[in-house]
Design goal:
Blueprint: E1 11-19, H1 21-24, E2 35-41, E3 43-44, E4 47-48, H2 61-67, H3 69-73, H4 75-81, E5 87-94, E6 100-102, H5 106-113, E7 120-127, E8 132-137, H6 143-151, H7 155-158, E9 159-163, E10 169-172, E11 178-180, E12 184-191, E13 197-200, H8 216-219, E14 231-232, E15 242-246, E16 251-264, E17 271-284, E18 287-292, E19 296-299, E20 305-318
Antiparallel strand pairs: 1-2, 2-5, 3-4, 5-12, 6-13, 7-10, 7-12, 8-9, 8-11, 10-14, 15-16, 16-20, 17-18, 17-19, 17-20
Length: 320
């Protein structure tokens, strides 16, 4: 069986901070007024993506990897991770601020949760005027200062706030205290992990009057108390793969597509394209596949040569 570009049913998540932009802006099939996340490609337990197109429609990503590990994942990825899909792809709509949070590194996550850590990156797809993100500390901090600021409800004062616009990119290593601010739509690429330590949630309550669980003590030894430089500058050469992030967990490039380009791969890793603006088509072995803003497509590693054509902004992700 020849593999082909795989799309998946979005896994939609209602969140206390969510809104409706995933529908109005990204064409996701949401019916709620508080949808915060669309998980595009996932193998997180109980949230495994199901293929929505072609011969394998209805099969899960885990099933197809189990059947064709080298062909889907790539030789290098299979050697490194076995049959685990190592990344999670999402779109987020923050109608309100997300909680202030931090993610543990691989070592802590493995010890405490039998999980990967959660290194991640954000691409800002849309930002309202004065939208901002919280990324790290303004100045070098400490466990004592962190605990005191939580007690006094002044943690915002010691954290670094960045005003953002469309196209901004942030790379968040594990241990970086962060929060996505209200009025943003974000494309997120991360390790396969759903481990989050919530530090502060603005004393919000849900529809039933309940506050969300905090993880103040768990976070103590997970936090990087140093100042971090998370924002990434990148070039935008048309019809080229412009590197944004290159880390041990993933490489992400930005492709401003205007016309047709031929893509050649080495079969060591799968590739994912997130269409963050515009429309494009992919041609492979005489077949044509159409994509629009908000679509995410997994290119199995076996697909070593194909063409993409259109006018679009694409995030290109693989493991190098």
């Amino acid at each position: 069986m020849n593999l082909y570009p795989l799309q998946f049913q979005p896994i939609l998540k209602d969140r206390i901070w969510g809104g409706t932009k995933l529908k109005t802006y990204l064409n996701k099939p949401i019916s709620s007024e508080i949808t915060g996340e669309s998980w595009e490609i996932s193998t997180v337990e109980n949230d495994v993506s199901v293929i929505s197109n072609g011969f394998f429609k209805g099969k899960s990503l885990n099933e197809i990897i189990s059947e064709f590990p080298n062909e889907v994942l790539g030789t290098k990825v299979y050697e490194q991770f076995g049959k685990q899909f190592p990344l999670l792809f999402k779109y987020l709509d923050a109608r309100e601020d997300l909680s202030i949070q931090v993610h543990p590194n691989d070592e802590l996550a493995a010890k405490r949760h039998n999980s990967f850590g959660k290194t991640e990156m954000w691409y800002v797809m849309q930002a309202d005027e004065n939208a901002r993100l919280i990324v790290g500390f303004k100045e070098k901090s400490s466990p004592n200062e962190y605990l005191k600021s939580l007690e006094n409800k002044t943690i915002i004062d010691i954290l670094d706030t960045k005003k953002v616009k469309k196209g901004d990119v942030f790379f968040l290593e594990t241990g970086t205290v962060h929060a996505i601010g209200a009025g943003t739509v974000i494309a997120e690429i991360q390790q396969t992990s759903d481990i989050t330590y919530r530090l502060y949630d603005f004393d919000r309550v849900d529809a039933h009057g309940n506050t969300r669980e905090l993880h103040v003590d768990l976070a103590l030894d997970a936090i990087n108390y140093n100042v971090v430089e998370a924002q990434k500058e990148y070039s935008k050469v048309v019809n080229s793969s412009n590197e944004m992030v290159n880390c041990p967990y993933f490489t992400t490039n930005f492709i401003p597509l205007d016309g047709k380009i031929e893509v050649e791969k080495d079969k060591k890793s799968f590739t994912v394209y997130m269409c963050v603006e515009g429309n494009f088509e992919l041609e492979y072995k005489g077949e044509s596949y159409q994509y629009k803003t908000g679509d995410t497509v997994l290119i199995p590693a076996e697909m070593a040569l194909f063409e993409i054509d259109g006018k679009a902004s694409l995030l290109e992700i693989y493991i190098s």
